[in-house]
Structure formats: C-alpha cells, structure tokens
Amino acid sequence: MGRAIQVGMIGAGRIGTLHAEHLAHRIPDARLIAVADIVQEAAERCAARFDIPVAVQDYRAILEDEKIEAVAICSSTDTHTQIIEDAARAGKQIFCEKPIAFDLARLDRALDAVRQAGVKLQIGFNRRFDANFRRIRDAVADGRIGTPHILRITSRDPAPPPIEYVRVSGGIFLDMTIHDFDMARYIIGSEVEEVYAVGGVMVDPTIGEAGDIDTTIITLRFENGVLATIDNSRQAVYGYDQRVEVFGSKGMIAAQNNTADRTVVSDTEGVHSALPLYFFVERYADSYIAELQAFVRCVQEDTPPPVTGLDGRVPVVMGYAARTSYEQGRPVRLDEV
Amino acid sequence: MGRAIQVGMIGAGRIGTLHAEHLAHRIPDARLIAVADIVQEAAERCAARFDIPVAVQDYRAILEDEKIEAVAICSSTDTHTQIIEDAARAGKQIFCEKPIAFDLARLDRALDAVRQAGVKLQIGFNRRFDANFRRIRDAVADGRIGTPHILRITSRDPAPPPIEYVRVSGGIFLDMTIHDFDMARYIIGSEVEEVYAVGGVMVDPTIGEAGDIDTTIITLRFENGVLATIDNSRQAVYGYDQRVEVFGSKGMIAAQNNTADRTVVSDTEGVHSALPLYFFVERYADSYIAELQAFVRCVQEDTPPPVTGLDGRVPVVMGYAARTSYEQGRPVRLDEV
Amino acid sequence: MGRAIQVGMIGAGRIGTLHAEHLAHRIPDARLIAVADIVQEAAERCAARFDIPVAVQDYRAILEDEKIEAVAICSSTDTHTQIIEDAARAGKQIFCEKPIAFDLARLDRALDAVRQAGVKLQIGFNRRFDANFRRIRDAVADGRIGTPHILRITSRDPAPPPIEYVRVSGGIFLDMTIHDFDMARYIIGSEVEEVYAVGGVMVDPTIGEAGDIDTTIITLRFENGVLATIDNSRQAVYGYDQRVEVFGSKGMIAAQNNTADRTVVSDTEGVHSALPLYFFVERYADSYIAELQAFVRCVQEDTPPPVTGLDGRVPVVMGYAARTSYEQGRPVRLDEV
Amino acid sequence: MGRAIQVGMIGAGRIGTLHAEHLAHRIPDARLIAVADIVQEAAERCAARFDIPVAVQDYRAILEDEKIEAVAICSSTDTHTQIIEDAARAGKQIFCEKPIAFDLARLDRALDAVRQAGVKLQIGFNRRFDANFRRIRDAVADGRIGTPHILRITSRDPAPPPIEYVRVSGGIFLDMTIHDFDMARYIIGSEVEEVYAVGGVMVDPTIGEAGDIDTTIITLRFENGVLATIDNSRQAVYGYDQRVEVFGSKGMIAAQNNTADRTVVSDTEGVHSALPLYFFVERYADSYIAELQAFVRCVQEDTPPPVTGLDGRVPVVMGYAARTSYEQGRPVRLDEV
Fold first, then answer.
1. Which pTM does this prediction carry?
2. Which residues, other chains included, contact A241 with Cβ-Cβ below 8 Å and sequence gap of 6+?
3. Could you tell me if A195 lies within 8 Å of chain D, comparing CB atoms?
4. Nearest neighbour of D272 by CB, restricted to B236, B268, B272
5. Average pLDDT for consecutive 10-residue bins of chain B (337 residues)?
C-alpha cells in the first residue's frame, strides 16, 4: 500500500461505471471522490452506487478540484482530446480510454498538451494487463521462444455492436482491430512497417450498408522482420475468441481462451467443455483492475505510465493504413498515413 | 441489492482476515462493523486494514451489540461450540468455519442451541460454492449424466502443514479429507453408509511420528448405491490438485484443475502448460466470496442456509469412521460411530 | 529383421483372427504357416483370408509339425492349460491369450510343464505394449515422478458382454479387472499384498441375476507401500475409458484416452472433442502387434518373454481375492487365496 | 474386398519405398508385381524387401507388362510428365506423386494425354486422407459450422530440407505451401481468386543464399468470399506443426496436432504433454495407406479418382502466384499466372 490517490471519473457510461467500481472497491490506494457526466443523472446514479461524494455534469468542476490528483476519462471518443488538453493544463494525471481520437491532428495536439504540462497519460489498452497476454509478452522478451518469427492473433466478438455504433465507430479497423494492433506491438516490441488487409461482409449485410465490413484478415510486417496475421470477426457464435500465438526460433507460446469453469462432460455425443467467457467484461475483468492499479502506482511512484500516448497513437495510424489497404487492395506502409 | 446486513467478525487470523476483506469490499450488502480477536492487536490490525469501526478482544462485546445481526466465527476450532451457543442465545445469525468441532457431544449441544434459538447456522464448506464443483453437482442433480454410479475425488495439498498443526489437527481424515467428505455428500445428494480407508506415511516421517498419516485412499458406499473413491496426499509438488469426477448411466462429468493462465509453451522438450493454482487461497478465492454472499442473502431473505449444521456434523462422523477403518483395517459403517 | 519364425495359430475365433492378420501382414519376421480350430470351417476361413497353407481341426497336428517353432494359443480359456502342456512337451515356444486358466491347480501344472520343457511362455496382456502405459511404466521406473505413492486406474467398457458370456466369464474381477491387476503390477513393479473390493449391479439387472456385478471400486495395497484404486464399469456410454495415473514424490504422470481424431468443434452449445476410441480392438490395435513382435523377437534372440507365466498367474489370484473381498465385505490378503 | 489390382511401382526412393510397403502389406486388393528405378540396385532392394517378383531399370518394361493395370509414379518430379504420358498411352491407371510438374505447359500436355487415353490419374495429396482434415472438410461440407468465413492453416516443418534440395525444389511456395494450397481448396470447396504473400529468411541464411525464403504468411481470397491465412516455417523446433481451423457462421472446427501418446506429466515446473509427431512419415502414416486404398478402389469400381489432375495443377498455379506476390509485394490474381 502506498499513499492514497484522489481520483475523479469523467464519463459514467458503461466503461466508466466499470472503472468506478474498481476504483471504489478493488484498488485500495485509490479514492474516487468525484464523478462527472454530461447526463447529470448518470453521474448521480454512479455516485450513489459507489459512495462517491461529488457528482457533477461539467467535468471542469473536477479539474478545478485541487484535492483531485488524477482523472479517468471515460467519456465518448470525440470528447477525449479536449478533456485531455484541459486536464493536462489543470495539472492532472490522466488515464484515458482508447481510442484517444480518430483525428490525428487533434490527437497530436492533445499529446503535445500532455508533454508540455509534464503530466502522465495512460491509455486504456487493458488487454496488456491480461495474465495470458502478459505471460506471452514476457516469454518473448525473455527469449523463452528464441527470436520471434510469426505472430498470430485471433480476435472475434460474440456479437456485432448495434448498427448505430457501427455507423460512427470509425470502422472495424479503428474500433475492433485497434486492440489487436496494440497487442501486436506490445508482444513483439517492434514497430510495424506495412499492413495488408482483406475483408468482407459475411455476418450481417446491414453492416455493409453502414459502410463497414465485419470480417477481416490483416497481415503485418514489423521493422524487425516478424510477420503477423490477425483475423477478426464481428460474430463468433461460440463466444469471445481471444487467442494469441507467437512462433520463434526456440519454440512457440500460445494462449487459449479462458472459460467460466473447467468441467468436461462426456456423453454419447462427444466430450464437451465450456465455451469461452462471453465478452470483454467477463474475459478481461481482471485486466481492468490491473490497468488502474498500474496507473495509480505510476502516479504514486512518479514512474512512466505503462501504456503511453504514443501507444495510443500508433494503433490509430495502423487502423487507417488497414482501411486504405482494404479499400485499395494493396499493402500500405505506415509512413504513407 | 437488498437491505444491508451488519456483521461482526469473531477471530482475525488468516481465514478471518480473508473473510473480513470480502465482507468489507466484495459483498455490497454486508457492513462489517466490528471485529473481535483474543489477541487485541490482531483485531485492531484487521480493523485498521478494512476500516472496521470497532475492534475488541472479547467476542461477547459483539454479541451484545444490537446493531449486529450476524456473526462470522473464524476463531480456533476448539472455541467454535461455545461461541455458537453464545451467539445463538444472543439471537445472531451465524456463519461458522469448518469443522464445527471434533467432540460430537459438544457439537450436538451447539446445534441444539441453534435450533432452540431459531437462528441460522451456515458452515464454511466453501468448496460447495466453487464454479467447477457447483456445475458438477447441478449436472448430477439435473440428470445430465443419468444415475450416478461412481464418484472419484482427488484432493492433494501442495505442501504439508506445520508439524505443530498436524499434532492438533485431528488427523488427516478430520482436517483434510473432511472437505472431500462434504463434497461427496454435496455432489451425490445421498448419505454414506460405510467407509474404508487405507493409508501410509510417504511424504514426511515426522508426520508419522506425530501420529498421523499423509497419504490415503478412502472408499465410500452411499445409501443410494453409489461408490466413491477419494485419494489424498499432503504433498503434490505440482500444486493443489483438486479434481472431481462423476460417472453415471448417461455419461461422465469431471472437473480439471484451475490454472493461473491458459498459455501453452511448445519447445524441444514438450508442450508445457501452467500448474494448478497453488493452494486454497488462490484456488477457492471466488468460493469464499460466494459463500458469504449466500449467507448474507439467506439472512436478508430469511431462507435456510445452503450449508447446514447437519452438513457440518456428518463429515466429522465420516472422519472418525475413516480413522477407525484405517486403524482396524476394515470397513466401518457410519452408524458405528 | 532377424530370422523368420514359423508360427502355428491355435484357435481362429475373434482374437485368433486378429493375431493371424498381424502375423500374416504386420510382423515381417513371422511366417504363419498353419491354423487349427475345433470348428474346421473357422480354420479354413482364416487360412483363406491370410494365405495360410495349412488349416486343421486338431491342434495336435500343429504340434507335430517340426517346421513350426512357435504357437499362439487363442482357443477358449478352458482349453489353455491342456494345450500349453501339450505344446510345451512338443518343444514349442508359446504365446497364450489371457487368462491362462481359472483353476489355479491346473494353471500351476501348466506352468510346471513349461518350466520342465524349458520353452518360453508369453501371456497376452497386450496393454503392457500400449504406448501410453509403457510410457507411464518407464516414467515410474526411471524415477521421473519420484517414489510412487498413489496409482489410479479407470477402466470402463463401452458395453457389457452378452449375458451368456457373463455367466461363464469367471465374473468381473477375473474377466475385466484382471487387465487392471496386470497393469497395476506392471506399472508399480511390486506385488500386491491386500485387496478390498466394493461393487454393485448398476448397469443391467440381468448381470446381477447371472451372479455377477457390473460396477466396482477396488483398493490395492502393494508390498512397497503404494496404494492403488481401480474403478470398473461394464458400460461407459461415451466409449472405452482407459486411464491410468501415478502420483509420486516428484510429480504425477497420467494417460488420457486416445481418440479417433484431434478435431474440436465450438458452437453455441460448447466446445466438443472426439470420444475415446470405441473398444479394445480400436484402442489397443497397435499393442496387439507390438506384443507379437516382442514374442517373435524373444524367440529369435532366445531372451525371456516380457510377460511371464507368473505374470499370468498373479492377476488370477488377485481376481479371487477381490471376489472374496466383495462377497465378505473385508480386505483380503493375497496369501489367503 | 474386391478384385485384385496388379500394380507396378515406378521410382523406388524414399516415398516409393513407403508406397511399396503399403501396396505389399496393407492394401489387401493390391498386388505389387513389379518395381522400376533408374538405379537398378534401388529397384532390386525394394523388390527383395517386399517380395516383388520383377525389378527393372527402365519403367517402360512395366508399361509393356499387360498384367499390370495400374502404376504408381514416385520418381523425381522432372520425370513425372513424360512417364504420365507414356503410361496413359499404355492404358495404365495412374497414381502420381505431387507435384505433377513445375512447367505448366508440360503439365497440361500430360493432363491432355490422360484425358485422351481415358485413364484415371490420381495425385498424391495424401493429407486429404488424414482423419483430422477429412473430418474438417466433411464438417464444412455438411454445414456443421454454417457458412465458412475464415480458414487458418499452420504448417511448419520440424527441420529444413538439405540445401541441395532447396536449390531445386521450386521454392517454399511450390515445395511446401503447395500442400496447404491443396488443403485450402479441399476444405473450402471453392477456387482461390487472389494470393498475397509476405516472407523472409529467418531460419537459416543459406536458404536465402540459395534464393529461397523459409518463413511466410499467405493470404487467400476465395471466389465464394472465404478469407484464408496460411503460415509456414521451415523449422518448428517442437516438431511438425499441422493445424487447420475453419470459422463459420455457426461455429468453428479446428484440428490440433497428433502426438505419439496421451500422457501428461505434472512436476514442479509445469504440466507437460507430448510433442507433435515428428514429421510427415509419422504424422501422415495412415493417410498414405488411405490414399492408395482409394486409388485401388476407384480402379476396381471404375469411379473418378478422389484427387484429379486439375487438383494437381491448381496448387502449382497458386505457388507461382504466391511467388510473384512475394517478389512484387502485391496481391496477385490466379488468372495472372
């Protein structure tokens, strides 16, 4: 246990409420003392549920509260850069949900503001804090499988998001693959040079009508020579499929899916085991706690955040490169974006 | 969420502290407002850690507190029956760690006191609340595997307890197998008629010198005809081995061990996956929370506790039968005890 | 490849035909040149199928053929001892299916005849030649898991034999468990001192009417202190369940079931993999070849057979001990039989 | 059993010897009555080993033998088309190892000769006869996983071939990936429109010096919209890695690697299971027998061969497309080749 960090939550939607619960109950050194939401009632509901003393509509009230050392930004994506800039100027330490922004110019301006203010900014790529993927990253970094050659990521959602969300999400590459782009960089520890994407509308034609695709395979070429393949689908009927495999000169490490239990039934039809955990809330429950613990610790100890602004920026660039690749039917280098 | 239940903790040792943490942070409807420990300093340390307003040495102060509706008894086994009787007379709802007691006469007197006071008594057989074993129980109850024929339980600790504990624990059958006896009854839903136990000192000769054994295989015959085999060891070097399998007329259900992660490494030597979770604190973490949630809920809703005083009594009887069987080299009927 | 061994087959029923196929096609150094069956037509059918030059009704014609160096006895159990004695006197090397006999006096007379003739006798405990169980035996012998403490064998048939067979089979312990008794001795490399068996009729009441049981759990105590548990059922609806596990001071080795393929289907209902191979013909296909290869090799190289007459005798004794234990409800020492 | 088919073997190298063994011992309806090899001694060694009556140097002697109904062509790749044409003109039914040829003009001329002669030609893509992959194909064809969306193939050799072989093999796409191209068409049941390949020299620089690569990821787009990713490495230190996965609208089917046994060791370091079978001879042992059985059956029953000349041609075209894609850094349509 270290000194307590006073935190303000900005945005009390689904993910904000999740983080609020963790800050309230699961992270001993955090004190969640204020919550803001553009919908006042949402802020109040969240405050009531987790005994948060202050609930406001305008996030600037949180930035003005001198007791508050850090903020967690969980509002809608289009508000992120403005709030980051304001929070940086107010001297707050910042945790911000991914993606930072879709507009690279605004994103860079926000990162600049953070740099100038000398505050910390941690991006919410929570999967880095998952036990499976962390173990893979460590194994690669430790040379346990030798020099990495091939990375395979399978990432499939159990069900597509509402079509309204698809229309504004930035498309599959910026909304869904972005997590896999982050995972690829995190595990391999090198930057991607070139992206090639193929895809199609296989799950639901209304996704195509909304201008997006729902199924894709992406090939990555890293600066250090590693080759990677990512496959995504908006709908795996058997649940959230989250597997990663790294193949190297001395062996392979692979993560299987997590399941709710380890029971196995044998009957006349076959041998049956449990489905993967249904979706991100169940699958990555522990990682959400771990990322906030890491954030609180880096504030306490004044160390660099484990997921930086640059880590938030690069996957957005990769998303644009993948989209161009898909649209133009050719590999696209990141430096083209 | 239901109405809040005010709880007092009696005993702030290892398991008491674990329960205190859950009551403080993980069970929204519980309010842990007092803690007692015969070592005042232990009570105070626990109180400080979980923001418990009251820390006392004498548990009777808790029983006298009218705000307190329920108590959790986590003191040493030899104090259980006295505290149960006192708590029952004080009208408190009672959660008590297993085993209730080794002395059957005193145990029965305590159960009588509970009955006369009309309070609830739930025994801390936490494994019943484990996701794997609950799913097995439900599968058996639902007929998913038909009529059960054979039950196999493997239960092996990662390391023996301190030899001081071995000397006073009541022996392997009352200290370790007792959990498996409870599991057997829970899963099969019938009573055991006869027990046969073989055993030996294989792990550590000092356990033999302390009058106990460290390895045993026990055969059970249930009233409904089911046959069961339990094997125990005080030391599985690969970690806590907790498997259950039920075989029936329509199939089989089996629980594998839980692991910290699902990664698999392949190298020139083989294909390597994670060890079982190390010991009960890690392995049964969720079940400890779930049993207290169930206790709080049964107090809130005034329903019978899911693990009764009888459930606490029978495994003790089975432990004595197993001990006699081992000592006399013959099957022993429970009604002999 | 070594020198060719001329072999005569005695008994052309199911298992005889299986061995004949292997001797004809799969064991390069064997020459199957004659087959005898009490039903002349069966001998002829077998001869036609595998290009065997000679088919006779009376096995003594085979014993009189000086070109024939070795015989494989696959006739009905009650004829084994007489044929062994005759074959031994004729100087033939002998492979004999298990069990040698149920009558221990006759069995011992046959073993005496073998000893006096100085010929080899290998018993058809084919499971010793299975890759899984051989690897377990080797691991135990090599100390890979340290000193063995606990042995668990699960052995369940996919379906009961015809009731006519049950009536004459000698009962579950002599007909089915006998393989597991052999496996236990083979893996642990020590003799069993005491047997305790419980059982019941759970699969089919007509088995009970025929004087047998169909479900049993057996506890073994070895001279070297190892404890073992065996469970048997006449009917596992999911197929032939053949698992073995040894737990020791340095770890555990366990064999899972073999399956026809390694595919896994995930759908909305669960994750489904293949059933165990259906029965002994499929499951132990390779072991039947390997045991005859070993027999041919020991004849070629004049080395002791890998499964001796004693290995054939002891499991029969264990079967009687288990039967007595079950009938009398008490542990039975082998030296009582 | 059907009528016996007299077969001549052309080419008695490694794969020819393997097929000869199967024709001699494992396929009851085949009679292997002649073997030819450009090295007379190789033909004679093979003949001696499998009791083949005739051994010649010139394969035309086999074509002239009127008793011989079918030939198996296992000579070096550059001789395939000439022998196919000669055998077709001689009216023989033809089994030919893959690849038919690298020169598409000559390949087409050979297929023409087959067509004109009205004989059968089966190509040796043995993996189609593997139990795992056959089950996947059947599951896809039966709609068990709904409409297929994504195909993933991992195919990694345990060790690179001799550098002399690499120099003449046609490169990784024509020598190694060709099997995966066939598998992709077989499983999906549609033709590939476009190929994109990335690759590198990661295993051994001498492979690069020989003008080849040793690691590649290939993306396929099928006419029916399915997307596929194949990854290859010349060296998986843990053994032959042969996995296939198909993801569709109703679920997923995946094949794990086959292993020599199903034992699992747990010790202080982890839980260890067996490596994949080492290489194609071990891994695909059964499939080599099954493909020849299928060939013999299609000759017996005068049905179309299960792997046609076109099935032999398309993967060669895909290999060229992949090579062009890799060299030019762009997706290549098959109709460009």
1. 0.96
2. A154, A155, A156, A257, A276, D252
3. no
4. B272
5. 91 96 93 97 96 97 98 97 98 97 97 98 98 98 98 98 92 96 98 98 97 98 98 98 98 97 97 95 95 98 98 98 98 96
